[in-house]
Amino acid sequence: MLLCNMDGNNAKKEFMKLTYIFHSGFALETQRCILIFDYWMDPARVVPNLLESPKPMYVFSSHFHEDHFNRDIFSWKLKKTNISFILSKDILKHRRAKKEEADAWLAKGATWQDSLIHVCAAGSNDSGVSWIVETEGRIIFHAGDLNNWYARFLNESGQNKQAYSPEFGIRIDPEKEEKRYLGELKDIRKITSRFDVAMFPVDGRIGNGYTRGARQFIEQFQVGCLVPMHFVASGFESAWRMKDFANAQGVQFWCIKENGESREVFQ
């Protein structure tokens, strides 16, 4: 099911430029608007130039964690008037922002739209939401912190007991956590089974099996281009490990090499 009663396969597909800002932050410029996802830092100073554009800008933050939400985004209103903030409701719950500061506060299952974009807040097995955005005949996905984070604790037999995660300081049941993750993917498939572009965590810090979540994602969906994110601590090259698997599935993969790098996106 598509989001706007549009046939995305037949709609005319225009120019789109995707720019990697930092960590999980991206800017997507289309013919008619600019989307910014999960801004944290901007080492290459991508955003100042985008704020000079006359195109409407939509700013998304998937959850309250500081590496996905930075209050500096609200200062952009001083430089740009045609800007909308579409934020996860957990940011409000954790008192990181005030209700009047955003144009929309969305939890899983909620939607928002105007004449240019249609947004659906999908689920996450971590905090907040993931984003499905349809614009100009394309469907865009930004995972936020949706991922199979505990894959390294899974063994080949699948018979797993609880394990201790030193990163989070908790004991977890990796099999149960994987089921939660796959359950979120199942819910997303009720909305759409394809994405022209999907930004998804490929984070080497989580250890052996760190590509498992991304592999499971592209096995479940028709994806035009898979774009890695959340890899800052483990390095650019660590994310490239996904390339061969993605290409074997008929999915383009972007081997990002530096902050501020851009590429035109076509299915």
Structure in words:
Helix 3 runs parallel beside helix 4 (212-220). The strands form 3 sheets. This protein has a 7-stranded mixed beta sheet with strand order 6-5-4-3-2-1-16. Strands 7-8-9-10-13-14-15 form a 7-stranded mixed beta sheet. It contains 6 helices and 16 strands. The chain has one domain (16-264): Metallo-beta-lactamase, Chain A (4-Layer Sandwich). With 267 residues, it is an alpha/beta fold. Strand 1 and strand 2 form a beta hairpin.
CATH topology: Metallo-beta-lactamase, Chain A
Please report which band the strand proportion falls in: under 5%, 5-15%, 15-25%, 25-35%, 35-45% or over 45%: 25-35%
Q: Catalogue the unreliable spans.
A: 1-11
Count of individual beta strands? 16
How many structural domains?
A: 1
Work out the radius of gyration.
Answer: 18 Å
Question: What is the makeup of the main sheet?
Answer: 7 strands, mixed
Helical stretch tally? 6
What structural class do helix, strand and pairing data support? alpha/beta
H/E topology pattern: EEEHEEHEEEEEEEHEHEHHEE
Q: What percentage of residues falls in helices of 4 or more residues?
A: 10-25%
Q: Specify the overall morphology.
A: globular
What CATH architecture do you see? 4-Layer Sandwich
| Distance, first to last CA | 19 Å
Determine the mean pLDDT: 92
